[in-house]
Amino acid sequence: MEAYSIQNDEVQILIDGRLELLxxxxxxxxxxxxxxxxxxxVNKNAYEPYIGSIGPYHHGKDHLKAMEVHKVRxxxxxxQRTNQPNTFIYVAVMRGMMEEVRNYYxxxxxxxxxxxxxxxxxxxxxxxxxxxxxxxxxxxLFKVDMIFSRILLDLMLFENQLPFSVIWKLLDMxxxxxxxxxxxxxxxEVFADSILPGFKVKDAxxxxxxxxxxxxxxxxxxxxWSSSMGEKGNVTxxxxxxxxxxxxxxxxxTNCISPTDYIILMDCLMNTEKDVELLCQxxxxxxFLGDNAAVATxxxxxxxxxxxxxxRFFYKELFGDVNKHYGSFWNxxxxxxRHDYFNSPWSLISFLAAVFLLLLSLRQTIFTILPxx
Length: 373
Description:
Blueprint: H1 10-25, H2 37-40, H3 66-81, H4 88-96, H5 98-104, H6 113-133, H7 145-155, H8 164-174, H9 177-194, H10 208-212, H11 217-226, E1 234-236, E2 239-241, H12 259-269, H13 273-281, H14 292-302, H15 316-327, H16 329-341, H17 345-369
Antiparallel strand pairs: 1-2
């Protein structure tokens, strides 16, 4: 029993040290994460920025270094536009936010605080100037549609984000309240035209609180896109009506339709190219891939390793209605009859002709058997 009273045991010291470190960190609520390994393995290129890195996760990669020159150029344009002689005010303000900003990132960052601060200033000012110049296309970088579209796509990557508080603060330093809202509204309009056809832009006025509370730019798009999407769908006389949604890419908040839920729904409906053909004929989807099998594969891959809450599943009622309809003995057998025997107009015509001939034969038989008056 004396062994248990020994103090300063090496293992005890090690564990106690980790407990003290845990207490000192106070476990922040991180908001910017890396993509889980199992999702990344489905398509690694889907999570890699194509032109420029934003934030620390992809910073310094060889294929993204060319954009660093443009970031400095955009910073210079921002300084000229805001009549600032140098970056002193921007560096000072961002330095005051460094603890908050660094805690936004869930992954352990190895870069020094000064290097991290430099990156935040350059990336943040670049995003702000993109928001300012995007609609006017006043920069040579924006006049090439392919490059401009890739920049917008890079800004929407899960791992390529800055805390929105950084962007909001920099917008505030470069203009008034109305200008900030106009920049954000303009971003949604340009983003919709370039990336998400069918994206409905709601009036940003009166929603400053919603915008300012966003975690990052992607989160803001989630929130605003989700409220513009369609209805849940329903089952009527055995037919499922589903809202048409273009580019179902992201997961969004509760009480809104989730594109993740839409992907799960479409993944359940599409396993073969014949399924895709039927959905195209019904106007549920339209494809420019030219290969129905490729569309089925696309949705099947999008559904890999995607988790969702059954309680908050947007199409929970629709799934229940479908299962209830299929559970009916009458509905199931009528569907089998239509599928096996009435799957074309000629089958129906043949059936009606056969019934007509049967009735004629029955009539003739009756008149033959019955005595005439």
